[in-house]
Design brief:
Structural class: alpha+beta
Shape: globular
Mean pLDDT: 84
Strand content: 15-25%
Distance between the termini: 38 Å
Number of strands: 11
Number of domains: 2
Low-confidence stretches: 257-277
Radius of gyration: 20 Å
CATH architecture of the largest domain: Alpha-Beta Complex
Strand order of the largest sheet: 4-5-7-6-9
CATH class of the largest domain: Alpha Beta
CATH topology of the largest domain: DNA primase, PRIM domain
Largest sheet: 5 strands, antiparallel
Number of helices: 9
Oligomer: single chain
């Protein structure tokens, strides 16, 4: 039986609270629903006091999806769609307290949390690095909620998904990379997710230029069977909207400055650029 551990507070909605003394072993819809009803964290801390310095261990991560990457409903990620993508992973999904409600100037839309089983971590930096790796792979996850001391507000989620796929998120990502790289082919069932990740990396590093789009379309040629032009356009447009969002954040490095530090290939060659994606 799959099991992951959350640590709950004795309160709900209290951002000033730092103590999470109650361990909750989560292994079903019922146990997950009960655990997330209170403010909670995904790590055990020394003296139950939440801080990076007090990090002891964790065997799961939580990622937030507020669907802020686009204002177009057709681009929004639903729990069901993500559950299909993560079918080989041990995970749970719960609705956030602002699910289908306006938030931070954004219209009502699906907002939810995804709890993924991981190997055991005892290093907060390595743990945070995993969250960053997952967010880079799936850019629709909130990139402002990736530290090792992240807490989640309690919510009486009426809808809970619990799924046992047999793999940790690390094992799943390694398998995905292996499949995508085998014989240079992207098979059915992996095409949309693989191309979405690839598009995100391309626009993050090279902007939504003609060259970046050419790289994207050449990668799309590996899909078997091919994705439709309509689906590819949808993926590319979503990546462009995401790039527009990240480019406005502090610390963003413009593509021209980023590329100036990369190895140079032959004039006019795209091979060097592809190698860095």
């Amino acid at each position: 039986m799959t099991e992951m551990h959350l640590y709950t507070a004795t309160c709900t909605g209290n951002e000033k609270n730092c103590r999470y003394p109650n361990e909750a072993a989560v292994s079903s819809e019922e146990s997950l629903r009960a655990a997330v009803a209170k403010d909670h964290v995904c790590a055990k801390y020394k003296n139950s006091y939440r801080s990076n310095d007090n990090f002891i261990s964790s065997d799961c991560i939580v990622m937030d999806c507020d669907n802020d990457h686009s204002d177009e409903p057709k681009d929004w990620i639903t729990p069901e769609a993500l559950a299909d993508e993560l079918s080989d992973v041990d995970f749970g999904i719960t609705e956030s307290r602002h699910n289908n409600m306006p938030k931070d100037g954004k219209s009502a839309r699906p907002r939810f949390h995804v709890y993924m089983r991981t190997r055991e971590y005892k290093d907060p930096d390595a743990y945070a690095a995993l969250k960053h790796a997952v967010q880079e792979r799936y850019p629709f996850f909130d990139d402002n909620a990736l530290d090792a001391g992240r807490f989640v507000y309690g919510s009486d989620s009426p809808k809970v998904i619990w799924h046992e796929g047999g793999k940790t998120i690390e094992e799943f990502l390694e398998t995905e990379d292996s499949i995508a790289g085998a014989a240079g082919e992207i098979p059915a069932g992996k095409r949309n997710a693989t191309m979405s990740r690839f598009a995100g990396k391309v626009v993050k590093r090279y902007g939504h230029s003609d060259t970046a789009h050419e790289i994207f379309m050449e990668e799309a040629a590996k899909c078997n069977p091919p994705l439709s032009d309509e689906e590819l356009a949808k993926i590319w447009n979503s990546a462009k909207k995401w790039e527009k969002k990240v480019s406005s954040q502090p610390g963003y490095i413009p593509p021209d400055k980023y590329n100036s530090a990369l190895p140079k290939g032959p004039a006019g060659s795209l091979e060097c650029i592809r190698a860095c994606v």
